[in-house]
C-alpha cells in the first residue's frame, strides 16, 4: 500500500518497531540491524546499494574518514573540471597517501603523500620507484641537457714531428718547431651517439705576429676514411693566451655508427720555437637521445 505522510505525526522522532520496505526492494529499512538497502530487500551493510549511484551538484562528493582520526579524510569529487581523489585533513593518516591493494591486502601500487609512486614497494624513494623488472613497449626520452667535454693538452698525441713538448704553468702543448715545415697534433673525441654539437672552443697561446695556430674538430667516415671539418678556431695576432669560439658547427649530429671524431691542431707556416701552444679544448653539446 501507500505510506500516507499526512497521517504521520509531526515533530519529534519517529520509531519503527519493525523493518520498513518500499516496493519490495526499492528501499528497505532494516531497523533491527540498522541497515538501509536500495535495490535490495536484504541489505548487508549500513548502506547497501544494488545498482548505479549518481551524485551530482556542486557539492557532490564521497567522504570517508579515518576510523582512527576523524580529522583525516578521503574524498572523491570534482574540482575545477578535474576529477580528483584526495587524502587530506589533519592528524594521523592525513599525509600517508594511497595504497592500491590486491588479495590479502598486498600492496600493488603506493602513492605517497609527497607524490612518489612505488610499484612493488610501499616506500618509494623517487618519483617512480619500481621494485622488480619493468617492461616498456615504447621509447623513453631523456629531456634535452647541455653537457661539455673538455680535453686538456695532455689528451693530444704529436704527429709528423717530435719537437712538440709539454710545459709547466698548467698543461700546454707547445709547438717548438726548430726546423722547417709545420707540425701537428691529434686527439680522439668520444661523444654520445645522437649528441648535437653546439659550440667548439679552444684556449690558445699565440705570441707570433706572423703565424697563427688552428684547432679543428673533424669527423671521419668509418668506411671510406674521408674526413670533413665540423668546427674550427684559430688564434689571432700576438695577444698571448686567448679563447676562440666557433658556434657555426656543421654536421652537428654525432653518428658513432658511421663516423669517428678527432681534434687536429697545427700552426700555419714555420714559426720559431715556443710561439704557439694549446692549453685545452671544449666541445659543448646537447643530448636528447632516447634510452634503448
Written overview of the protein:
The protein has 292 residues and is mostly beta strands. The protein contains no helices and 24 strands. Strand 19 and strand 20 form a beta hairpin.
Write the layout of secondary structure elements.
Layout lengths: L19 E3 L4 E4 L4 E4 L8 E3 L11 E6 L2 E11 L2 E8 L8 E4 L5 E5 L5 E3 L8 E3 L9 E2 L3 E8 L4 E3 L4 E4 L4 E4 L8 E6 L6 E11 L6 E9 L5 E8 L5 E7 L12 E9 L8 E12 L2 E2 L1
Mean pLDDT figure: 84
The chain-level structural class is: mainly beta
Distance between the termini: 72 Å
Task: Name the helicity range.
Answer: under 10%
Number of helices, where a helix is a run of at least 4 consecutive DSSP H or I residues: 0
Using the alpha-carbon principal axes, give the shape. rod-shaped
Strand content: over 45%
Tally the beta strands.
24
Largest sheet: 6 strands, antiparallel
Radius of gyration: 38 Å
User: Which regions are unreliable across 5 or more consecutive residues at pLDDT < 50?
Assistant: 177-181
Give me the strand/helix succession: EEEEEEEEEEEEEEEEEEEEEEEE
Keywords:
five-stranded antiparallel beta sheet, 48% strand, single chain, six-stranded antiparallel beta sheet, mainly beta, rod-shaped, 292 residues
Amino acid at each position: 500500500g501507500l505510506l500516507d505522510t499526512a497521517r504521520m505525526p509531526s515533530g519529534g522522532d519517529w520509531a519503527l518497531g519493525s523493518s520498513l520496505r518500499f516496493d519490495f526492494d526499492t528501499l528497505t529499512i532494516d531497523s533491527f540491524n540498522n541497515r538501509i538497502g536500495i535495490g535490495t530487500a536484504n541489505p548487508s551493510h549500513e548502506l547497501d546499494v544494488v545498482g548505479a549511484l549518481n551524485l551530482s551538484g556542486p557539492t557532490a562528493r564521497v567522504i570517508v574518514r579515518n576510523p582512527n582520526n576523524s580529522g583525516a579524510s578521503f574524498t572523491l569529487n570534482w574540482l575545477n573540471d578535474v576529477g580528483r581523489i584526495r587524502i587530506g585533513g589533519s592528524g594521523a593518516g592525513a599525509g600517508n597517501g594511497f595504497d592500491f591493494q590486491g588479495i590479502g591486502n598486498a600492496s600493488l601500487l603506493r602513492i605517497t603523500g609527497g607524490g612518489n609512486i612505488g610499484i612493488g614497494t610501499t616506500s618509494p624513494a623517487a618519483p617512480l620507484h619500481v621494485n622488480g623488472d619493468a617492461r616498456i613497449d615504447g621509447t623513453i626520452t631523456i629531456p634535452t641537457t647541455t653537457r661539455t667535454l673538455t680535453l686538456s693538452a695532455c689528451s693530444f698525441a704529436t704527429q709528423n714531428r717530435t719537437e712538440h713538448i709539454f710545459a709547466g704553468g698548467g698543461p700546454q702543448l707547445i709547438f717548438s718547431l726548430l726546423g722547417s715545415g709545420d707540425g701537428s697534433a691529434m686527439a680522439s673525441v668520444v661523444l654520445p651517439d645522437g649528441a648535437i654539437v653546439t659550440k667548439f672552443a679552444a684556449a690558445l697561446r699565440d705570441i707570433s705576429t706572423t703565424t697563427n695556430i688552428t684547432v679543428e674538430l673533424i669527423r671521419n667516415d668509418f668506411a671510406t676514411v674521408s674526413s670533413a671539418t665540423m668546427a674550427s678556431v684559430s688564434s689571432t695576432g700576438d695577444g698571448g693566451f686567448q679563447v676562440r669560439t666557433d658556434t657555426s658547427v656543421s654536421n652537428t649530429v654525432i653518428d658513432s655508427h658511421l663516423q669517428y671524431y678527432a681534434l687536429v691542431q697545427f700552426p700555419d707556416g714555420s714559426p720559431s720555437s715556443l710561439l704557439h701552444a694549446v692549453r685545452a679544448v671544449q666541445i659543448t653539446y646537447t643530448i636528447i637521445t632516447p634510452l634503448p
